[in-house]
Specification:
Length: 437
Protein backbone atom coordinates (compact mmCIF):
# COMPACT_ATOMS: atom_id res chain seq x y z
CA UNK A 1 0.00 0.00 0.00
CA UNK A 2 1.36 3.39 -0.93
CA UNK A 3 1.32 5.40 2.33
CA UNK A 4 2.27 8.50 0.42
CA UNK A 5 -1.20 8.48 -1.12
CA UNK A 6 -3.04 8.30 2.23
CA UNK A 7 -4.20 11.89 1.95
CA UNK A 8 -4.53 12.10 -1.82
CA UNK A 9 -8.09 13.52 -1.88
CA UNK A 10 -7.73 15.93 1.06
CA UNK A 11 -4.37 17.15 -0.18
CA UNK A 12 -6.03 18.23 -3.42
CA UNK A 13 -8.33 20.57 -1.49
CA UNK A 14 -7.36 24.15 -0.89
CA UNK A 15 -7.32 25.26 2.74
CA UNK A 16 -10.52 27.25 2.24
CA UNK A 17 -12.28 24.27 0.61
CA UNK A 18 -11.17 21.99 3.45
CA UNK A 19 -12.45 24.38 6.12
CA UNK A 20 -15.70 24.85 4.20
CA UNK A 21 -16.38 21.12 4.01
CA UNK A 22 -15.50 20.63 7.69
CA UNK A 23 -17.71 23.58 8.65
CA UNK A 24 -20.57 22.16 6.55
CA UNK A 25 -20.42 18.91 8.51
CA UNK A 26 -20.35 20.79 11.83
CA UNK A 27 -23.32 22.94 10.78
CA UNK A 28 -25.54 20.09 9.53
CA UNK A 29 -27.62 20.39 12.71
CA UNK A 30 -28.97 23.73 11.49
CA UNK A 31 -30.63 22.22 8.41
CA UNK A 32 -31.92 18.79 9.51
CA UNK A 33 -35.10 17.93 11.42
CA UNK A 34 -34.35 14.63 13.16
CA UNK A 35 -31.48 12.40 14.27
CA UNK A 36 -31.83 9.99 11.33
CA UNK A 37 -31.46 12.77 8.80
CA UNK A 38 -28.54 14.17 10.81
CA UNK A 39 -26.67 10.85 10.66
CA UNK A 40 -27.34 10.31 6.96
CA UNK A 41 -26.30 13.82 5.88
CA UNK A 42 -23.25 13.87 8.19
CA UNK A 43 -22.07 10.51 6.84
CA UNK A 44 -22.60 11.56 3.21
CA UNK A 45 -20.61 14.78 3.64
CA UNK A 46 -17.86 12.99 5.57
CA UNK A 47 -17.47 10.44 2.77
CA UNK A 48 -17.28 13.25 0.22
CA UNK A 49 -14.58 14.99 2.28
CA UNK A 50 -12.40 11.85 2.41
CA UNK A 51 -13.14 10.83 -1.18
CA UNK A 52 -14.51 7.48 0.03
CA UNK A 53 -17.42 5.40 -1.27
CA UNK A 54 -18.32 3.33 1.79
CA UNK A 55 -19.19 4.21 5.36
CA UNK A 56 -21.53 3.52 8.24
CA UNK A 57 -22.75 4.99 11.51
CA UNK A 58 -23.73 2.77 14.43
CA UNK A 59 -25.66 4.03 17.46
CA UNK A 60 -25.48 2.47 20.91
CA UNK A 61 -28.77 0.89 21.98
CA UNK A 62 -29.14 1.49 25.72
CA UNK A 63 -31.48 -1.49 26.16
CA UNK A 64 -29.49 -4.21 24.38
CA UNK A 65 -26.07 -2.57 24.90
CA UNK A 66 -25.31 -3.34 21.24
CA UNK A 67 -24.44 -1.12 18.30
CA UNK A 68 -27.22 -0.80 15.72
CA UNK A 69 -26.60 0.36 12.15
CA UNK A 70 -28.47 3.65 11.63
CA UNK A 71 -26.90 5.12 8.49
CA UNK A 72 -24.85 3.60 5.68
CA UNK A 73 -23.56 4.29 2.17
CA UNK A 74 -21.97 1.85 -0.24
CA UNK A 75 -23.20 -1.26 1.61
CA UNK A 76 -25.19 -4.01 -0.07
CA UNK A 77 -28.78 -4.45 1.12
CA UNK A 78 -27.98 -7.84 2.63
CA UNK A 79 -25.33 -6.17 4.78
CA UNK A 80 -27.63 -3.39 5.88
CA UNK A 81 -30.59 -5.51 6.99
CA UNK A 82 -30.57 -6.09 10.74
CA UNK A 83 -26.84 -5.28 11.03
CA UNK A 84 -25.77 -5.21 14.70
CA UNK A 85 -22.38 -5.20 16.40
CA UNK A 86 -21.59 -6.36 19.90
CA UNK A 87 -19.15 -4.40 22.03
CA UNK A 88 -15.66 -5.67 21.21
CA UNK A 89 -16.73 -7.30 17.92
CA UNK A 90 -14.67 -6.39 14.85
CA UNK A 91 -13.26 -2.93 14.15
CA UNK A 92 -16.45 -1.08 15.12
CA UNK A 93 -16.94 -3.06 18.32
CA UNK A 94 -13.30 -2.60 19.32
CA UNK A 95 -13.55 1.17 18.93
CA UNK A 96 -16.77 1.21 21.00
CA UNK A 97 -15.14 -0.87 23.72
CA UNK A 98 -11.94 1.18 23.99
CA UNK A 99 -13.53 4.55 23.14
CA UNK A 100 -10.52 5.55 21.06
CA UNK A 101 -10.23 6.03 17.27
CA UNK A 102 -8.47 3.39 15.17
CA UNK A 103 -6.76 3.46 11.78
CA UNK A 104 -6.28 0.12 10.00
CA UNK A 105 -3.88 0.35 7.10
CA UNK A 106 -4.49 -3.27 6.04
CA UNK A 107 -7.00 -5.49 7.84
CA UNK A 108 -5.39 -8.58 6.32
CA UNK A 109 -2.06 -7.98 8.09
CA UNK A 110 -3.15 -6.03 11.20
CA UNK A 111 -2.21 -8.08 14.29
CA UNK A 112 -5.08 -6.54 16.28
CA UNK A 113 -7.62 -8.32 14.04
CA UNK A 114 -5.94 -11.65 13.19
CA UNK A 115 -9.25 -13.53 13.05
CA UNK A 116 -11.11 -10.84 11.13
CA UNK A 117 -11.33 -10.45 7.38
CA UNK A 118 -13.01 -7.74 5.36
CA UNK A 119 -16.10 -8.68 3.32
CA UNK A 120 -15.55 -9.44 -0.35
CA UNK A 121 -17.63 -6.39 -1.23
CA UNK A 122 -14.94 -4.10 0.23
CA UNK A 123 -12.70 -2.52 -2.41
CA UNK A 124 -9.74 -1.84 -0.07
CA UNK A 125 -8.56 -3.38 3.24
CA UNK A 126 -8.02 0.02 4.94
CA UNK A 127 -10.38 1.61 7.51
CA UNK A 128 -10.67 4.58 9.83
CA UNK A 129 -13.11 4.32 12.70
CA UNK A 130 -13.88 6.78 15.53
CA UNK A 131 -16.22 6.81 18.55
CA UNK A 132 -19.04 9.33 18.83
CA UNK A 133 -18.48 10.58 22.38
CA UNK A 134 -19.82 13.25 24.68
CA UNK A 135 -17.28 13.37 27.48
CA UNK A 136 -16.96 9.66 28.39
CA UNK A 137 -20.48 8.67 27.24
CA UNK A 138 -20.57 6.56 24.08
CA UNK A 139 -23.19 7.65 21.52
CA UNK A 140 -22.03 5.42 18.70
CA UNK A 141 -19.28 4.77 16.12
CA UNK A 142 -18.54 6.05 12.59
CA UNK A 143 -16.59 3.89 10.14
CA UNK A 144 -15.10 5.00 6.78
CA UNK A 145 -13.44 2.82 4.11
CA UNK A 146 -12.88 2.34 0.37
CA UNK A 147 -11.22 5.50 -0.93
CA UNK A 148 -12.14 6.09 -4.55
CA UNK A 149 -8.43 6.33 -5.34
CA UNK A 150 -7.75 2.90 -3.82
CA UNK A 151 -5.27 4.41 -1.37
CA UNK A 152 -5.17 3.59 2.34
CA UNK A 153 -5.94 5.80 5.32
CA UNK A 154 -3.28 7.37 7.55
CA UNK A 155 -2.93 9.10 10.93
CA UNK A 156 -3.86 12.52 9.52
CA UNK A 157 -7.14 11.08 8.19
CA UNK A 158 -7.83 9.56 11.61
CA UNK A 159 -7.25 12.84 13.47
CA UNK A 160 -9.66 14.67 11.16
CA UNK A 161 -12.34 11.94 11.52
CA UNK A 162 -11.95 12.02 15.32
CA UNK A 163 -12.67 15.76 15.34
CA UNK A 164 -15.68 15.33 13.04
CA UNK A 165 -16.99 12.45 15.21
CA UNK A 166 -16.96 14.78 18.22
CA UNK A 167 -19.05 17.32 16.31
CA UNK A 168 -21.52 14.70 15.06
CA UNK A 169 -21.98 13.44 18.64
CA UNK A 170 -22.67 16.96 19.91
CA UNK A 171 -25.13 17.60 17.09
CA UNK A 172 -26.84 14.25 17.79
CA UNK A 173 -27.31 15.19 21.43
CA UNK A 174 -28.59 18.68 20.53
CA UNK A 175 -31.32 17.25 18.28
CA UNK A 176 -32.24 14.71 20.96
CA UNK A 177 -32.64 17.57 23.41
CA UNK A 178 -34.72 19.56 20.93
CA UNK A 179 -37.02 16.57 20.41
CA UNK A 180 -37.44 16.14 24.16
CA UNK A 181 -38.00 19.89 24.44
CA UNK A 182 -40.81 19.79 21.87
CA UNK A 183 -42.32 16.77 23.59
CA UNK A 184 -42.39 18.57 26.91
CA UNK A 185 -44.00 21.62 25.37
CA UNK A 186 -46.75 19.45 23.86
CA UNK A 187 -47.32 17.68 27.14
CA UNK A 188 -47.54 20.99 29.01
CA UNK A 189 -50.33 22.10 26.66
CA UNK A 190 -52.26 18.84 27.12
CA UNK A 191 -51.76 18.52 30.87
CA UNK A 192 -52.12 22.00 32.26
CA UNK A 193 -52.42 20.68 35.79
CA UNK A 194 -48.77 19.65 35.53
CA UNK A 195 -47.68 22.97 34.06
CA UNK A 196 -45.39 23.83 36.96
CA UNK A 197 -43.38 20.63 36.65
CA UNK A 198 -43.22 20.84 32.85
CA UNK A 199 -42.08 24.45 33.03
CA UNK A 200 -39.24 23.48 35.34
CA UNK A 201 -38.16 20.62 33.04
CA UNK A 202 -38.39 22.91 30.01
CA UNK A 203 -36.16 25.51 31.63
CA UNK A 204 -33.61 22.85 32.52
CA UNK A 205 -33.59 21.42 29.00
CA UNK A 206 -33.36 24.88 27.47
CA UNK A 207 -30.24 25.57 29.53
CA UNK A 208 -28.78 22.21 28.46
CA UNK A 209 -29.45 23.07 24.81
CA UNK A 210 -27.73 26.44 25.18
CA UNK A 211 -24.75 24.80 26.93
CA UNK A 212 -24.39 22.20 24.16
CA UNK A 213 -24.65 24.89 21.48
CA UNK A 214 -21.85 26.80 23.16
CA UNK A 215 -19.74 23.67 23.54
CA UNK A 216 -20.27 22.89 19.85
CA UNK A 217 -19.06 26.41 19.03
CA UNK A 218 -16.02 25.91 21.27
CA UNK A 219 -15.34 22.61 19.50
CA UNK A 220 -15.34 24.18 16.05
CA UNK A 221 -13.17 27.04 17.25
CA UNK A 222 -10.78 24.66 19.03
CA UNK A 223 -10.40 22.56 15.90
CA UNK A 224 -9.53 25.64 13.87
CA UNK A 225 -7.06 26.84 16.48
CA UNK A 226 -5.39 23.41 16.68
CA UNK A 227 -5.12 23.27 12.88
CA UNK A 228 -3.69 26.78 12.57
CA UNK A 229 -1.35 26.79 15.58
CA UNK A 230 -0.07 23.28 16.28
CA UNK A 231 2.22 22.93 13.26
CA UNK A 232 3.71 26.46 13.47
CA UNK A 233 4.20 26.07 17.24
CA UNK A 234 5.96 22.76 16.71
CA UNK A 235 8.30 24.35 14.18
CA UNK A 236 9.12 27.34 16.38
CA UNK A 237 9.77 25.06 19.37
CA UNK A 238 12.05 22.86 17.26
CA UNK A 239 14.15 25.81 16.07
CA UNK A 240 14.23 27.27 19.58
CA UNK A 241 15.67 23.99 20.88
CA UNK A 242 18.25 24.03 18.07
CA UNK A 243 19.23 27.58 19.03
CA UNK A 244 19.64 26.51 22.66
CA UNK A 245 22.09 23.82 21.54
CA UNK A 246 24.09 26.32 19.49
CA UNK A 247 24.12 29.32 21.83
CA UNK A 248 27.22 28.22 23.72
CA UNK A 249 28.12 30.07 26.94
CA UNK A 250 26.12 33.24 26.32
CA UNK A 251 23.85 33.05 29.38
CA UNK A 252 21.89 36.19 28.48
CA UNK A 253 20.77 34.84 25.11
CA UNK A 254 20.17 31.42 26.68
CA UNK A 255 17.86 32.98 29.28
CA UNK A 256 15.95 34.80 26.54
CA UNK A 257 15.55 31.57 24.56
CA UNK A 258 14.33 29.70 27.65
CA UNK A 259 11.70 32.39 28.26
CA UNK A 260 10.59 32.00 24.62
CA UNK A 261 10.40 28.23 25.05
CA UNK A 262 8.35 28.55 28.26
CA UNK A 263 5.93 30.89 26.51
CA UNK A 264 5.53 28.51 23.57
CA UNK A 265 4.88 25.61 25.94
CA UNK A 266 2.15 27.66 27.62
CA UNK A 267 0.57 28.37 24.22
CA UNK A 268 0.55 24.64 23.47
CA UNK A 269 -1.11 24.00 26.84
CA UNK A 270 -3.78 26.64 26.13
CA UNK A 271 -4.72 24.94 22.83
CA UNK A 272 -4.88 21.54 24.56
CA UNK A 273 -7.05 22.86 27.38
CA UNK A 274 -9.35 24.68 24.96
CA UNK A 275 -9.99 21.33 23.28
CA UNK A 276 -10.85 19.96 26.73
CA UNK A 277 -13.93 22.23 26.77
CA UNK A 278 -15.68 20.01 24.26
CA UNK A 279 -13.95 16.66 24.50
CA UNK A 280 -11.45 14.87 26.67
CA UNK A 281 -7.94 15.38 25.39
CA UNK A 282 -5.19 12.82 25.74
CA UNK A 283 -3.71 12.87 29.23
CA UNK A 284 0.05 13.19 29.74
CA UNK A 285 1.39 10.37 31.89
CA UNK A 286 3.92 12.36 33.90
CA UNK A 287 3.38 13.29 37.53
CA UNK A 288 3.81 16.86 38.81
CA UNK A 289 4.58 18.46 42.16
CA UNK A 290 1.74 20.74 43.33
CA UNK A 291 4.13 23.15 45.09
CA UNK A 292 6.10 23.64 41.86
CA UNK A 293 2.90 24.17 39.89
CA UNK A 294 1.77 26.83 42.37
CA UNK A 295 5.06 28.70 41.84
CA UNK A 296 4.72 28.41 38.03
CA UNK A 297 1.17 29.73 38.14
CA UNK A 298 2.20 32.72 40.25
CA UNK A 299 5.08 33.46 37.88
CA UNK A 300 2.68 33.35 34.89
CA UNK A 301 0.53 36.19 36.30
CA UNK A 302 3.18 38.06 38.27
CA UNK A 303 3.73 40.77 35.67
CA UNK A 304 -0.02 41.52 35.48
CA UNK A 305 -0.21 41.67 39.27
CA UNK A 306 2.77 44.00 39.54
CA UNK A 307 1.34 46.26 36.84
CA UNK A 308 -1.86 46.64 38.90
CA UNK A 309 0.02 46.84 42.23
CA UNK A 310 -1.67 43.65 43.45
CA UNK A 311 0.11 41.40 45.96
CA UNK A 312 0.05 37.61 45.67
CA UNK A 313 0.70 35.59 48.82
CA UNK A 314 1.10 31.82 48.89
CA UNK A 315 0.80 29.22 51.63
CA UNK A 316 1.77 25.68 50.70
CA UNK A 317 1.43 22.92 53.28
CA UNK A 318 4.03 20.18 53.82
CA UNK A 319 3.94 16.73 52.30
CA UNK A 320 1.94 17.52 49.17
CA UNK A 321 1.74 14.31 47.07
CA UNK A 322 2.42 14.30 43.33
CA UNK A 323 -0.60 14.57 41.00
CA UNK A 324 -1.21 13.60 37.38
CA UNK A 325 -0.59 16.39 34.89
CA UNK A 326 -4.10 16.88 33.52
CA UNK A 327 -3.87 20.69 33.47
CA UNK A 328 -3.44 21.77 37.11
CA UNK A 329 -1.35 24.79 36.09
CA UNK A 330 -4.14 26.02 33.80
CA UNK A 331 -6.61 25.77 36.70
CA UNK A 332 -4.46 27.91 38.99
CA UNK A 333 -3.39 30.41 36.30
CA UNK A 334 -7.00 31.08 35.30
CA UNK A 335 -8.15 31.49 38.91
CA UNK A 336 -5.24 33.79 39.74
CA UNK A 337 -5.75 35.87 36.61
CA UNK A 338 -9.48 36.29 37.38
CA UNK A 339 -8.64 37.35 40.93
CA UNK A 340 -6.09 39.93 39.75
CA UNK A 341 -8.54 41.29 37.17
CA UNK A 342 -11.21 41.73 39.87
CA UNK A 343 -8.99 43.81 42.16
CA UNK A 344 -8.17 47.48 42.36
CA UNK A 345 -4.60 48.69 42.96
CA UNK A 346 -3.42 47.62 46.41
CA UNK A 347 -5.53 44.45 46.41
CA UNK A 348 -4.45 41.07 47.75
CA UNK A 349 -4.70 37.53 46.34
CA UNK A 350 -3.96 34.48 48.48
CA UNK A 351 -3.25 31.06 47.02
CA UNK A 352 -2.90 27.99 49.22
CA UNK A 353 -2.49 24.22 48.87
CA UNK A 354 -2.93 21.61 51.59
CA UNK A 355 -2.96 17.81 51.74
CA UNK A 356 -5.98 16.33 53.54
CA UNK A 357 -4.56 12.96 54.53
CA UNK A 358 -7.79 11.71 56.15
CA UNK A 359 -9.66 11.62 52.82
CA UNK A 360 -6.84 11.52 50.28
CA UNK A 361 -7.38 14.92 48.65
CA UNK A 362 -5.34 18.01 47.84
CA UNK A 363 -7.24 21.28 48.29
CA UNK A 364 -6.26 24.48 46.48
CA UNK A 365 -7.76 27.85 47.35
CA UNK A 366 -7.51 31.15 45.49
CA UNK A 367 -9.01 34.06 47.44
CA UNK A 368 -9.15 37.79 46.77
CA UNK A 369 -10.40 40.80 48.73
CA UNK A 370 -12.22 42.31 45.75
CA UNK A 371 -15.89 43.24 45.24
CA UNK A 372 -17.13 39.64 45.22
CA UNK A 373 -20.03 38.22 43.18
CA UNK A 374 -23.20 40.36 43.22
CA UNK A 375 -26.31 38.88 44.83
CA UNK A 376 -28.09 39.20 41.47
CA UNK A 377 -25.68 36.78 39.78
CA UNK A 378 -26.17 32.98 39.79
CA UNK A 379 -22.78 31.51 40.90
CA UNK A 380 -23.32 28.38 38.77
CA UNK A 381 -23.44 30.50 35.57
CA UNK A 382 -19.84 31.65 35.90
CA UNK A 383 -18.65 28.23 34.67
CA UNK A 384 -20.78 28.32 31.51
CA UNK A 385 -19.01 28.92 28.14
CA UNK A 386 -18.77 32.60 27.12
CA UNK A 387 -20.34 33.88 30.38
CA UNK A 388 -18.33 36.91 31.46
CA UNK A 389 -18.74 40.23 33.23
CA UNK A 390 -15.47 41.59 31.83
CA UNK A 391 -15.05 44.07 29.01
CA UNK A 392 -14.67 42.43 25.60
CA UNK A 393 -10.98 43.28 25.38
CA UNK A 394 -10.29 41.46 28.68
CA UNK A 395 -11.68 38.04 27.84
CA UNK A 396 -14.32 35.92 26.09
CA UNK A 397 -15.63 33.99 29.09
CA UNK A 398 -13.80 30.68 28.60
CA UNK A 399 -11.37 30.77 31.56
CA UNK A 400 -13.67 29.30 34.21
CA UNK A 401 -15.16 26.87 31.66
CA UNK A 402 -11.67 25.49 31.07
CA UNK A 403 -11.12 25.32 34.85
CA UNK A 404 -14.38 23.41 35.34
CA UNK A 405 -13.61 20.91 32.56
CA UNK A 406 -10.09 20.19 33.86
CA UNK A 407 -11.40 19.74 37.42
CA UNK A 408 -13.89 17.18 36.05
CA UNK A 409 -11.04 15.31 34.36
CA UNK A 410 -9.50 14.92 37.84
CA UNK A 411 -12.90 13.73 39.20
CA UNK A 412 -12.55 16.70 41.54
CA UNK A 413 -14.85 19.48 42.67
CA UNK A 414 -14.80 23.26 42.45
CA UNK A 415 -16.76 25.60 44.71
CA UNK A 416 -16.98 29.36 45.00
CA UNK A 417 -17.72 31.30 48.16
CA UNK A 418 -18.48 34.98 47.82
CA UNK A 419 -20.48 37.85 49.21
CA UNK A 420 -20.83 41.37 47.79
CA UNK A 421 -17.96 43.53 48.97
CA UNK A 422 -16.19 40.65 50.73
CA UNK A 423 -14.17 39.11 47.92
CA UNK A 424 -14.38 35.65 46.38
CA UNK A 425 -12.74 32.33 47.23
CA UNK A 426 -12.47 29.45 44.74
CA UNK A 427 -11.90 26.03 46.33
CA UNK A 428 -10.62 23.19 44.14
CA UNK A 429 -10.57 19.70 45.67
CA UNK A 430 -8.63 17.04 43.75
CA UNK A 431 -8.41 13.35 44.75
CA UNK A 432 -4.89 11.97 44.88
CA UNK A 433 -5.92 8.75 43.15
CA UNK A 434 -7.60 9.75 39.85
CA UNK A 435 -9.10 6.82 38.00
CA UNK A 436 -8.33 6.51 34.28
CA UNK A 437 -11.12 8.01 32.17
Amino acid sequence: MNKGMSQDHIQQLTESDLFKQVSDICAVVNTVTDVQQLLEVSLSRTLRLFGARRGSVFIMDENTKCLLLKAAEGLQQTEVNQMMKRIGEGVVGRVAEQKIPIVVENIETDERFVNYRARKSYQTPSFICAPLLIKDHLIGVINITDKLSGAGFGRADLQLLDFLAMQIALNYRRIELYERFRSILKRSEELKNELGKSSQETTKLRRQIIAHERLATVGKMAGGIAHEFNNPLDGVLRYTNLCLKQVGDDEVIRSYLLEIKNGLNRMTTIVRNLLACSRRSEKPLQMIRPDVVVDQAIQAVQSEAQHKNVRIEKEVGPGLPDLKDLGLESILVNLLRNAVDALKPGGLVKISAVHLEHNGHVVFQVADNGPGIPDSEDPSKIFEPFYTTKDMEKGCGLGLTIVSEIVKSYQGQIQVESAPGEGATFIVTIPIETRDL
